[in-house]
Amino acid sequence: MRSHEAADASPTADRTLGPAARRASCVGLVLAACLATSPTLAVAAEAASAGAASGGAAPPSASTANGSGAGLDRYYQQRPSWGSCVTGPDDTTGIDLDKAGVQCADVTVPLDYAAPRGRTITVAISRLKATDTRHRIGAILLNTGGPGGPARAYPPTARAAMKEVGARYDIVGFDPRFVGRSTPLDCGWPLGMTWLSAGADRAGFDRQVALQKSLADKCRATGASVLPHISTRNTARDMDVIRGALRERKISYLGYSYGTYLGTVYTQMFPGRQDRMVLDGAINPGDYRPRLLEGAERANEKALSDWAGWAAERHGTYGLGRTRSEVLASVDRVVAASARGPLTIGSGADAFRIDDSQVPLLLFSGIADDTEPARASFGELVSVLVAAAGGAPTTLPAGFAAELRYALRGEGEPTGVQSAIICGDVAAGRDPEQYWRDIERSRTAHPLFGPLTRNINPCAFWDRPREEPTRVTRDASALIVAATGDPRTTYKGSVELRRLLPSSRLLTLEGANRHALYGSYGNTCVDDQVNSYLATGRLPAKDRTCVKESD
Questions:
Q1: Tens digits of per-residue pLDDT, 310-365?
Q2: Which of 19, 44, 307, 311 has its Cα between 20 and 30 A from that of 167?
Q3: Which residues contact 504 (CB under 8 A, 6 or more apart)?
């Protein structure tokens, strides 16, 4: 699990962002997601339909500068009260942010943009101010993916990635509505990750149907008053309120994974309000849907196979096989053993029993990063799984227990916000039999990942979204960054987004099985191209290609 999170959708540095941020970012695509639909409604139609769906006043159209005439002026005209980021004596993240010169504040936004005089919530923001004020460019807003990835703690990491140009920006992180330090949502689930496999047979799938329905019911019972207002479109509206509160006419943006979808939605809802936009690990908006992993099976199979070749060269360390096929056979034995009965990994309070609904998730989680440390971390986990499949006692590698406590037990942090966002964006199919048929069709070609990517999830039992998904009908300028072997948001998604936004440019990294690149993967060509764009505002004249550097 740790490998997946650390390699997630954003260049998060362990010392700056903890497991929660890494988990949300990546898993978020689980990302798998990290992750619909299609292209954006014209502004007038958007405002009208949103107002009708909400039964109240329409949200502000793009032609309404700062919400004038829509009851939103007080939100756009608020002035954040900047101060310490520390929330208590044990808030080590806040202490580190203070030491780095970051200031924090809350921005007030309406729960329901169609009823701006009603209930309000807060969105937590942070700011690392420009130090080169003479050459200041503006503010850049950050999103680390997810959905549900917090970015309040991210400005110092972003400034390091931006190198010299970072001093020319106010770098602004924010925790999206109901995430992190913002007004919270906690569904109280007994697990943190819902991206589970249907398992080997119909009985396993039936258990998934019951589980996923229970999760939806529990979240509805806990958060019924706010769930209708948790969506990407409302987060985009919050972003524009942040822009207004910062007194910026336009705002730049850096988004990873799901953050590329959020950024794209912002360009469609608020055209002309973005300055420089970097979208790393992009999602094709037409592919954004509750089963966000659907279609990523081949990319993940290739990433797993490439890792197996790496592990085979290190048989003396991991003992998984001397050839690629032998390593993959070891993985198959783990999956088969978990289908016969739960495997026990770890010991004592950190002993976890995992079955064939969870093992594929752990395998999937470890292959989004082909760097040496990430591959080694995944090798340690697979070695533990192989030992458990053989009935041997195991000890979890350092760092895995905390990840598993959240993913498999829901311990330590709020649960449910990722599903709430996805389910609030796009309606899911309701018929379990259709999911089962999809799983069975996919199982033939993709026996490991098909039952994971096609499985049912809480969205099948969620209330229908209040708004239609955003359609991309407007051009926008952006630098889209993508690796050809990205196992999460596959490369074809970035190619399609490039087509939808003709004024954008695509920066491709050849030969990397990596989700999210800028500032974290260490490719000089990619980092230099992005920083040049952030410095000058000029996109390359044509699409560019970089090559993976040798390890």
A1: 999 999 999 999 999 999 999 999 999 999 999 999 999 999 999 999 999 999 99
A2: 19
A3: 279, 476, 477, 478, 479, 480, 497, 498, 539
